[in-house]
């Protein structure tokens, strides 16, 4: 894989789509992001969909005229240029709606993302648990699929 590998994290839906839509910018975990990873990192949508009863979740789907059943599964949706890990404290917990999309309990970790790059089409690929490598030499690379920010396409 070498230089052709991109780090990936698989997320359940709808959280993966929320990241690709730019309404969720922080992923929360009980474990820190390894210090060796600063970015880029891709977001993979798992085949699992969790239907959450929450007005922020409902609004995000209604705004796009989608239901949970419409969300893409088993594919890479986007990648970020940079990821930074910060331990959650009472002082740095984000406001809503971001707070609604993660678990900001004491002692957890926030993976703050920057530089959203949405793939023009979801790329079907089998995901894995934890952080894994995507061999981009087997597919079109994100940098070839995604134009400058001014030309970026929305996933939906």
Describe the structure.
The protein has about 160 residues and is mainly beta. The chain has one domain. About 15% of the residues lie in helices and about 35% in strands. The protein contains three helices and six strands, in the order βαββαβββα. The chain has a six-stranded mixed beta sheet with strand order 2-5-4-3-1-6, covered by helices on one side. The radius of gyration is 15 Å and the shape is globular. The protein starts with a strand and ends in an 11-residue tail after the last helix. The C terminus is likely disordered.
Q: What would the keywords be for this entry?
A:
156 residues; mainly beta; 6-stranded mixed β-sheet; 3 helices; 13% helix; disordered C terminus
How would you classify the helix and strand content by structural class? mainly beta
Which value, in Å, is the CA radius of gyration? 15 Å
What's the N-to-C terminus distance?
31 Å
Tell me the strand order in the biggest sheet. Answer: 2-5-4-3-1-6
- State which percent range the strand residues make up: 35-45%
Parts with pLDDT < 50 across at least 5 consecutive residues: 141-156
Q: What is the element string, with H for helices and E for strands?
A: EHEEHEEEH
Tell me the domain tally: 1
Query: What would you call the quaternary organization?
Result: single chain
Q: Report the mean per-residue pLDDT as an integer.
A: 86
Q: Which of globular, elongated, flat, extended, rod-shaped describes the shape?
A: globular
Number of strands: 6
Q: Main beta sheet, described?
A: 6 strands, mixed
Q: Helix count, per DSSP? A: 3
Helical percent range? 10-25%
